[in-house]
Design a protein that fits this description.
Layout (H helix, E strand, L loop, with lengths): L2 E3 L5 E3 L2 H11 L6 E4 L6 H12 L2 E6 L16 H11 L10 E6 L10 H8 L3 E6 L2 H9 L9
Parallel strand pairs: 3-6, 4-5, 5-6
Antiparallel strand pairs: 1-2
Length: 152
């Protein structure tokens, strides 16, 4: 068994996705990433573990726990608009260019966020990972957004 100590002394089980995430980060041409899979398999835990070890700043937006963040695309999909909207909702968020991972979790509750991925890819200041449960149900909506500007 491959067990590591996680944040705050929690136990973290090493998964296949860990190597994939490291390879994704090492790719100089990386695109925003959408992680899809079954519920309760450790997607969020793996992404958090990876993020805390590889980024100076991590901005995590969970659209189920914090539905107010669904409004971040209300004024447009550009990186500046989305970052500004997130900062207005939570001024403590820290966006450090080239050192920040933005993690959009539970995107099945705001599939419109996938439209921003094209702009994040073109802008290049921030890495973006999206994840969510039951993505298979609404993935067709997400799949049509940002074709060529994301990795699934």
């Amino acid at each position: 068994m491959n067990v590591l100590e996680g944040a705050k002394g929690t136990v973290y089980l090493r998964r296949k996705i860990d190597r994939f995430l490291l390879d994704w980060k090492a790719d100089s041409n990386r695109k925003p990433l959408i992680v899809k899979g079954s519920r309760q398999v450790g997607k969020t835990a793996a992404i958090r573990h990876f993020a805390s070890a590889n980024y100076r700043s991590v901005v995590e937006i969970n659209f189920v726990e914090n539905p107010k963040y669904r409004a971040i695309t209300q004024n447009g999909y550009s990186v500046d608009e989305v970052v500004k909207s997130m900062s207005l909702l939570d001024p403590t968020l820290c966006f450090i260019p080239h050192e920040t991972l933005i993690f959009f979790d539970e995107i099945q509750d705001h599939p419109d966020i996938a439209t921003t991925l094209k702009f994040f890819r073109q802008d290049g200041r921030f890495d973006v990972i999206c994840s969510g449960s039951m993505l298979g149900i609404s993935y067709r909506t997400i799949e049509s957004n940002s074709v060529g500007y994301k990795t699934d």
